[in-house]
Amino acid sequence: MSGEATVGQEVPPRRKRAWPRLLLPLIAASLVAAAALAALVTISITWTNETAELSDSLEREQSRAESLNGQLTSYKEREQELVDREVAVEAREVDADDREVELERREAAVSKVEQQVAATTLKDGHVYTVGSTMEAGTYQANPTGGSCYWVIYTSGTNYSDIVENDYGTMGSITVTVSAGQDFRSSKCGDWTKVG
Fold first, then answer.
1. Burial of 148 by CB count in 10 Å (0-12 exposed, 13-18 middle, 19+ buried)?
2. Fewest CB atoms within 10 Å of the CB: 129, 130, 143, 156?
3. Contacts of 182 (CB under 8 A, 6+ apart)
């Protein structure tokens, strides 16, 4: 037994190995490195997850912003349509006002003509005196039967001084009267002043 000591022999002291002293710092350094690596991996995973969430959130917000921008464009188009409609309505109101003014002008002109016609229309069967109950000028009638009679007298002669007369003429008849004359017709219809 070569490794055993005999009695009385001195056993040489064992040498302590140096590696156990280095082992603890190496283990501690390895644990720190492992912890740092684990922390780094955890931070990296957390950062990756947060980045993905932020990226998704950013995409959602960009999509929402595009949608809102589309709605804003649509609202602006609608607003412009309303402005255009308001301008068209205002133009129509101006046109309506202009048409109303023109209509009133025409009505006044027609009314004036109607009043002139009424004032100068001679009714059949009546006696008229030029300058008093009728105006001087040319009058026209359109008798429908063959029994129309008209006569022009000299005023103040009690209808005895006949200037002109006619009986039985059909179609359009015109007579001209002047101051100092009387006029009467029978079965000729109304007479309208034409000149």
1. buried
2. 156
3. 127, 128, 129, 130, 152, 153, 154, 155, 159
